[in-house]
Design a protein that fits this description.
4 domains, 5-stranded mixed β-barrel, alpha/beta, two-stranded parallel ribbon, about 375 residues
Amino acid sequence: MLRKHKLQLTEVLPLYARLGPAEQARIFKPSGIRRIVLATNVAETSLTVPGIRYVIDAGFARISRYSHRSKVQRLPVERISQASANQRKGRCGRVAAGICIRLFSEEDFESRAEFTEPEIQRTNLASVILQMKILGFGDIETFPFVDPPDNRLIKDGYRVLEEIGAVDGQRKVTRIGKQLARLPVDPRIGRMLFAATHANCLTEVLVIAAALSVQDPRDRPMDKQQAADEAHAGFRSEESDFIGYLNMWDHLEEQRRHLSKRKFRIYCRSRFISWTRVQEWHDIHHQLRGQLHEMGYKENQAEGSYEEIHTSVLTGLLSNIGLKAGGKDRDYLGGRNSRFMIFPGSGLFKKQPKWVVAAELVETTRLYARTVGSVKPE
C-alpha cells in the first residue's frame, strides 16, 4: 500500500522472523533517505534500529497459544499488554528524541493487561512434565512455579504422553518415556525416531525429525514468490511433504560434498534456501544421530520404504490424522471433530488424498495442516 503512494526519497522495508538474514540486515544499513520499516513484534524488544524517530503502534500482535480444547497451536491476533506497548515505544528515542503514536485510546491502554502471559501458561506441557518426572521433581501440579500453568494444560500434557506411550494409565514413566527424555526434541518427534529404529528407516526419519525441529529452511520472499516456488518445485512430492524434506536433504548434502563453504552458501541463496537454517537442521541431525548411537541404535543400510517411514511418523502424530470430508470442499475431519484444510503451500494441496497425517495443525485465519503426508489405512 505504501509503495503505491510513490513517496519521494523514501524506502519501505519489511521486518519479520522468517525473512532471510540479508533482507533483515538491510534495516541496519544507513541509506541516506527516509525509511519506513514495517515490523511484526520481532522488533519489539532488544533491537536498536538506527535513526528511528517515530514509532506507530497499532496495538496488536500474533501470539502463540495452545488450545487445550482443540489440542491445536493457535496464532490469534490479540491486543498487546501495557508492557509490550512500552517496549514498542522504546524503539524510538534510542539515538535522539522520538515520538510514539499509539492507534488506540488512553482508556484502552489502561484497560489492558499489565504483562503478556508467560509462555508456560500458553503452551503444550508434555515435554516439561516428562523432564520433571525424570529429574525427580515430583508432580507438576504441586511444583512451586512462579506462574503455575492451568490444570487443563497439565491434563493435556499427560494425554499427549499417554498417547505416545511415554506414561502409563497411572501416570508412571514407561521404559520408552525414559528413552524419550534423553532426546533434545519434542516427545512426539522422539517417538517417531524410536518407531523408526524398529521399522528399519532410522536414516530417513532422522532427517525428517531434525527438519520438524527447525524452521522451514525454504525462503519465500514477498517480491519473488514465483521464483522461489519454481526453485523449490524439484523437492516437492505429491504423496508427502515428509518425503519432500528427504529430497531436499539429499540434494543439499550432495551439493555440500562438492562445494566449498562459500560456494554452498551462494548456492543456497540462489535456490531460495536459508543457509543458517540448513546449518541448524544439519546440527540437530548430527546431535540426534549421536544420541541414538549412544543408546545403541544404528541407521539402516537399505533404503526405508514409504510405508515404513510413514508408519513411524504416525506413531508420533496419532492425533493429527484427517479423513477427507465428503463433497467438493477441501475440508478434512480430524480428531475431536476438528475440521482443517491442507496448507496451500503443501505439495498435496492439489491432490487432496483421502487420508492424511500432519506434522502440525495451526490456526491462523482458519485451521491449517502443515507438512502433510498421505497415508493408507490398511
